[in-house]
Amino acid sequence: MPAQDITGQRITGQRGAGQRIAGHGAFGPLSGIGDEAAPGVDGQLAALRRLGWTAVELRAVDGTALADLSPTAFATLTRQLADAGVTVTAVASRIGNWSRPITGDIGLDLTELDVLAERCAALGCRLVRIMSYPNDGLPQGEWADRVLARTAVLADRAERAGLVLVHENCAGWAGDRADRALRLLRAVDSPALRLLFDTGNGVPYGYDAPDMLRDLAPYVAHVHIKDAVRLPDGSTAYTLPGEGDAGVARCLRTLAAHGYTGALSLEPHLAVRPHEGLTRAGEDAVDLFVRAGRALVALLDAERPGGGPA
């Protein structure tokens, strides 16, 4: 059935001029968080060219978050993307993420959102990734109340700017539980708040991602693709899509069954993991990103009618 929001309105993900894969359903462009391949724009675009993709998700350039780029650097970025014919599927902000606990200053997030509103308009992009604030010693009830209140303020500002905030199943109050994610959507009750589902986050956060997605799929407007395994010591090792225990193929089938037509954005975490301080630049990172992208294409090809399940 087509994806719907909690009021019954159909949801479609961000679409662009990217490659379309005829697997289960018709997903939108294949994309990727560019700085997972290379710090600079040239390297990010080179990785996309090797994959034959024409869409990117922006997070940072040369180690600087998109919202913190100088006007000159941002103008250069937009010109390079336009010259390369690359569209932007989403921007990965720091709003509510692992570095901004619920006791911090919401002013940081509001300022970042205001800057991104202007930059998304220039980029032709509406989706902004957010999270729901790690706790900082508050009782569970107060943590929840503050998250709901803050997200409502952010969604109101996003709606007035023509943006859609997409909450990721990652760090924060609603990150690892479907019931909390649904409560967040219902409490905020805004067309400017939807969900981003990352296929690989269940492994490090200790939940079954395909099971969670069954409840959340109707509200998903953007997707990150990664895969991982849990090691005997409890740590996480990231793998090529389809080679880990995250259930990526199951997630793709569920999304297709719910009519998801948005982008699939690669975030392999093989060379770059900002929350862990891992940044492996150079050809190694580009090669790992390209290998992960090709693995995703192979996974989608395996899911095509007649190709058999992955």
From TrEMBL:
<dbReference type="InterPro" id="IPR036237">
    <property type="entry name" value="Xyl_isomerase-like_sf"/>
</dbReference>
<protein>
    <submittedName>
        <fullName>Sugar phosphate isomerase/epimerase</fullName>
    </submittedName>
</protein>
<feature type="domain" description="Xylose isomerase-like TIM barrel">
    <location>
        <begin position="45"/>
        <end position="271"/>
    </location>
</feature>
<dbReference type="InterPro" id="IPR050312">
    <property type="entry name" value="IolE/XylAMocC-like"/>
</dbReference>
<dbReference type="Pfam" id="PF01261">
    <property type="entry name" value="AP_endonuc_2"/>
</dbReference>
<dbReference type="InterPro" id="IPR013022">
    <property type="entry name" value="Xyl_isomerase-like_TIM-brl"/>
</dbReference>
<dbReference type="GO" id="GO:0016853">
    <property type="term" value="F:isomerase activity"/>
</dbReference>
<keyword id="KW-0413">Isomerase</keyword>
